[in-house]
Write a structure and sequence with these properties.
Strand order of the largest sheet: 3-2-1-4-5-6-11
Helix content: 25-40%
CATH topology of the largest domain: Rossmann fold
Shape: globular
Number of strands: 14
Radius of gyration: 19 Å
CATH architecture of the largest domain: 3-Layer(aba) Sandwich
Largest sheet: 7 strands, parallel
Structural class: alpha/beta
CATH superfamily of the largest domain: NAD(P)-binding Rossmann-like Domain
Distance between the termini: 34 Å
CATH class of the largest domain: Alpha Beta
Length: about 325
């Protein structure tokens, strides 16, 4: 039996593929390589270049590879881009996800792990935010993910599709073995941008908004190491295989850092100073969002190992130095 990983050549997806292969799983990856890289995958994984919206292709992969579980990462993820191109985001994130879910049901797949986001909460009334908090996304990105959550729950009730929805907070860092990491050019992730600036790949970086109702006026986020996030996915897959009930779970550490605190950490860990420009707020950015992750720990037995901002930054720096040296 095989695990199908959509978007498996991307930043988070490629970490999942490595973890699955490390565990002896058979893995087939479906990725259109718009933001992913074939070289980020282990040799033991089968890569099929294609689109999650291609019903014939997805159905064929499920049948030919005897897929018994799907881990669905493929999506567009940049909040400001979603504000500028909402229909593109609803097509890629919602319509295409509907196709993957439908193919899973048609193909008899009974286990589905979905990559969702803390953006479904919008600007929460209180932090840390629990899974039962009001859902009020501030961007088409958040809305597109919430729509997929609703479809997946409905399909689960109607067709017995066991699923775990994981709501990511801010994912950062890289594989501790330096096999994969955040490699997308012109990425917008804060730690990635700060690391590139520290290494001279950008002249300067911007802080978007300094007048938020936070201690230093900049946005506060819960940064989770990508390896710990992938551990939660592996735990979710084990949970479903063991007959566990469907669930929606936050993935974060339960404490946050401001944009300025992250930048200062990157400067200190990298041992260099770099210019930072203060800029206006971006549309769609909540002031502060931090996870309550007790449910994931209790239900899945999830035990994070890299809950340390210095470690997250150090791994991100090591990966950026590696791919820069390799010309990637």
């Amino acid at each position: 039996m095989t695990v199908l990983v959509t978007g498996g050549a991307g930043y988070i997806g490629s970490h999942m593929v490595h973890a699955l292969v490390d565990s002896g799983e058979r893995v087939v990856v479906l990725d259109n390589l718009s933001t992913g890289f074939a070289w980020a995958l282990p040799a033991a994984a089968t890569l099929v270049e294609g689109d999650t919206g291609d019903e014939v292709l997805v159905s064929r992969l499920i049948a030919e590879h005897a897929v018994e579980a799907i881990v669905h990462f493929a999506a567009s993820i940049v909040v400001p881009d979603s504000v500028a191109d909402p229909l593109g985001y609803y097509r890629n994130n919602t319509v295409n996800s509907r196709n993957v879910i439908a193919c899973a049901v048609k193909g008899g797949v009974k286990r589905f792990v979905f990559s969702s986001t803390a953006a479904v909460y919008g600007n929460p009334d209180a932090v840390p935010v629990a899974e039962d908090a009001p859902l009020s996304p501030m961007s088409p990105y958040g809305s597109s993910k919430l729509m997929t959550e609703i479809m997946l729950r409905d399909a689960g009730l109607a067709h017995g599709l066991g699923h775990v929805i994981l709501r990511y907070f801010n994912v950062a860092g890289a594989d501790p073995q330096a096999r994969t990491g955040q490699s997308t050019r012109n990425a917008t992730h804060l730690i990635k941008v700060a690391v590139e600036t520290a290494l001279g790949l950008r002249e300067k970086m911007a802080v978007f908004g300094t007048d938020y109702p936070t201690p230093d006026g900049t946005c506060v986020r819960d940064y989770i190491h990508v390896a710990d996030l992938i551990a939660a996915h592996m735990d979710a897959l084990r949970h479903l295989r063991g007959g566990g009930a469907s669930a929606t779970l936050n993935c974060g550490y339960g404490h946050g850092f401001s944009v300025l605190e992250v930048i200062e950490t990157v400067k200190r860990v990298a041992g260099v100073d770099f210019p930072v420009e203060l800029a206006p707020r971006r549309p769609g950015d909540p002031a502060a969002i931090v996870a309550s992750s007790e449910k994931a720990r209790a239900l899945l037995g999830w035990q994070p190992r890299f809950d340390d901002l210095d470690t997250i930054v150090a791994h991100a720096l090591a990966w950026q130095r590696k791919i820069s040296a390799e010309g990637r």
